[in-house]
């Protein structure tokens, strides 16, 4: 489990394309410290398994299903990525419960800078809109954010200077894809209510 609090801004240093998968080499000094084979690291909100690590970088295999459902397929050498290790039991939950299982992708639609923050508007797939509410939580490229406004096919988030400086949302431009993970609690509630309604 993750919390959506990005630990560092890493970089893709190598991409190996396989028949039905892709292998990334990711530089991230903080998240590779103490890393072992089989550990999990979230890359732009996608939970990946460490295959190997050396120095300040690790490699991870990404299967076709993940490439198709996320924006990882658009990554290239030099791409910056948000990195986070799983939260430890007993640690503070600084963001919200994040599984690292991307529900879909959106697109940055526009950015409106102001003196102390920036409003970013992001497109929202129709099948995810019912899980997104004003002042609720959503994960964008692995970043735990609070929804400012929720429309039928978009939502907005307000970004503070720290988020702009330390995550990919500081450099994403209109047209760029982002990974979205909605609040898992909303999905469980929907499932329970649906099941309950079906037994009446």
From TrEMBL:
Lumazine-binding repeats lie at residues 1-96, 97-193. It is an enzyme of class 2 (transferase). It comes from the Bacteria. Pathway: Cofactor biosynthesis; riboflavin biosynthesis; riboflavin from 2-hydroxy-3-oxobutyl phosphate and 5-amino-6-(D-ribitylamino)uracil: step 2/2. Residues 1-96, 97-193 form the Lumazine-binding domain. CDD domains: Riboflavin_synthase_like. Gene3D superfamilies: 2.40.30.20. PROSITE patterns: LUMAZINE_BIND. Keywords: Repeat, Riboflavin biosynthesis, Transferase. Its EC number is 2.5.1.9. It catalyses: 2 6,7-dimethyl-8-(1-D-ribityl)lumazine + H(+) = 5-amino-6-(D-ribitylamino)uracil + riboflavin. Pfam families: Lum_binding (PF00677). PANTHER family: RIBOFLAVIN SYNTHASE, RIBOFLAVIN SYNTHASE ALPHA CHAIN. NCBIfam families: PRK09289.1, PRK13020.1, ribE. Catalyzes the dismutation of two molecules of 6,7-dimethyl-8-ribityllumazine, resulting in the formation of riboflavin and 5-amino-6-(D-ribitylamino)uracil. This is Riboflavin synthase.
